[in-house]
């Protein structure tokens, strides 16, 4: 049961993800396992039952209920509503975003409204990155990359700009790396060349690129 002084459980997927990341270290092993599964397979949570999701996550159905309650939800159905809401509110298309910006431009300059909106969104993203970054995991990632023989960079679709610039930076720093981007689509064959001393660094934005997730 949720205590009176416990903050209300998040009602959106982004809030749920942030909560799981913030509390990951204190969750029991089985609950952490299910929470990780939920983040990686949100559609399974949205469409499944406690029993079917538990079977996929290799835990008992009661573990699903325990996870929900540990995070402040009344039960699995209450938690599931968050994942279903995610499907009801998909990421808007670029055309829809531009239409929304034009609608709020008012009497001012449309170009100025676009610049202000993009600048504000960028500022919010940077602030969220600062507030939500798990510093111990960031340090672990830095250690892995520093010790890697070769760093493989993956970024599909709009994430490609990120890895392309990172590839430029690593080249300037004389860091051995491979950018997995090819007009012949041989990325999978290339990553098969990676050894136990190498590292894979992948970037993606929601809705996540399926090919990046499969790698």
Structural write-up:
It is a single chain. By secondary structure, this protein is mostly helical. The protein folds into three domains: 76 residues, Orthogonal Bundle (Arc Repressor Mutant, subunit A), CATH 1.10.10; 39 residues; 80 residues, no CATH class. A three-stranded parallel beta sheet has the order 2-1-3, covered by helices on one side. Helix 10 links the parallel strand 1 and strand 2. Helix 2 packs across helix 5. The longest helix is centred in the middle third of the chain and has 23 residues. It is globular, with a radius of gyration of 21 Å. 16% of the residues are buried. The N terminus is likely disordered.
Q: What is the tally of beta strands?
A: 3
Between the first and last Cα atoms, what is the distance in angstroms?
A: 39 Å
Q: What class, by secondary structure content? A: mainly alpha
How helix-rich are the residues, as a percent range?
A: 55-70%
Low-confidence stretches: 1-5
Radius of gyration: 21 Å
The H-and-E topology, N to C, reads as HHHHHHHHHEHEHEH
Order of neighbouring strands in the sheet with most strands: 2-1-3
Mean pLDDT comes to 80
Count of alpha and pi helical runs: 12
Report strand %: 5-15%
Count of the domains: 3
Largest sheet: 3 strands, parallel
Global morphology? globular
Secondary structure: elements and pairs:
Layout: H1 13-23, H2 29-40, H3 42-47, H4 50-57, H5 61-70, H6 76-88, H7 94-103, H8 110-132, H9 135-147, E1 151-155, H10 160-172, E2 177-179, H11 187-191, E3 199-203, H12 210-214
Parallel strand pairs: 1-2, 1-3
Helix pairs in contact: 2-5, 4-5
């Amino acid at each position: 049961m949720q205590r009176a002084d416990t903050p209300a459980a998040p009602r959106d997927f982004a809030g749920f993800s942030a909560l799981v990341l913030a509390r990951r270290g204190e969750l029991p092993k089985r609950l952490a396992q299910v929470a990780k599964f939920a983040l990686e397979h949100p559609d399974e949570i949205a469409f499944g039952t406690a029993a079917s999701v538990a079977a996929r996550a290799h835990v008992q159905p009661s573990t699903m209920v325990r996870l929900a309650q540990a995070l402040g939800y009344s039960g699995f159905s209450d938690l599931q509503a968050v994942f279903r809401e995610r499907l009801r509110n998909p990421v808007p298309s670029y055309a829809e975003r531009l239409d929304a910006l034009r609608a709020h431009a008012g009497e001012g300059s449309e170009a100025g409204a676009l610049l202000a909106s993009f600048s504000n969104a960028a500022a919010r993203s940077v602030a969220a990155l600062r507030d939500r970054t798990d510093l111990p995991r960031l340090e672990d990632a830095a250690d892995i990359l520093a010790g890697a023989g070769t760093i493989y960079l993956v970024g599909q679709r709009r994430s490609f700009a990120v890895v392309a610039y990172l590839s430029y930076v690593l080249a300037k720093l004389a860091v051995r790396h491979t950018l997995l981007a090819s007009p012949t689509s041989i990325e999978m064959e290339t990553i098969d060349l990676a050894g136990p001393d190498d590292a894979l660094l992948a970037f993606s934005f929601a809705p996540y690129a399926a090919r990046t997730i499969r790698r």
